[in-house]
Amino acid sequence: MRSRSQHQRRKRIVQAAAALASRGGIEAMQMRTVSERAGVALGTLYRYFPSKMDLVVAVVSEEILLLEGSIERRPPRASDAPARAVEVLMRATRGLMREPELAEALIRSLLLSDVKTDFGERMSELLLRAASGPPEDISAEDPRRLVARALSGIWTMEMIEMLRGNATADEIQSRLEITAARLLIDP
């Protein structure tokens, strides 16, 4: 059980890491620099995050938390499931692309990290909620769960293409709309 001061310290560390990543990618997230910026000893930083990738995964988690809060405050309003799912993905895209260096760091961490992350699961849950209602009301065997996971994976690959300069947000949205319309059908 962590105390309030421990939560605040952890939050400062993650915010410092995110700020550094937004200016220079993962390379800018040097552990010593993060500890200095967060105002904690290097040993303290390593107690919270044993490796740089653990820290990157924490930043990814914070970004997802922000997206989840945004979706909760302003749920998608489209009339059909595919359009609601695409709305969620495009909000995530716009949010990430406001800080392209951070977006690249987050995507790279998903590809390169051997640290376990729940990114795919959380994105799938967001898509399920937007497209079909509360995920807890959808059984584990329901094919919509697999479809949401697949759509989340497709979006991740589209983000990679955008970060490489091979796609625009409009192109991504168009491809996601076509894919969601074909995949998200009533069970």
In short:
Helices cover 74% and strands 0% of the residues.
Descriptive account of the structure:
InterPro entries: Homeodomain-like_sf, HTH-type_TetR-like_transc_reg, HTH_TetR, KstR_C. It holds the Pfam family TetR_N. It contains nine helices and no strands. 34% of the residues are buried. It is mostly helical and 187 residues long. It is globular. Helix 1 (4-24) crosses helix 6.
Query: What is the tally of helical segments?
Result: 9
Rg? 18 Å
Query: What string, H for helix and E for strand, traces the elements in order?
Result: HHHHHHHHH
The structure class reads mainly alpha
Percentage of residues in helical conformation: over 70%
Strand proportion: under 5%
| Largest sheet data | none
Shape: globular
Low-confidence stretches: none
What is the residue-mean pLDDT, rounded to a whole number? 87
Number of strands: 0
Spatial separation of the terminal alpha carbons:
42 Å
Protein name: TetR family transcriptional regulator
Pfam families: TetR_C_20, TetR_N
Keywords: DNA-binding
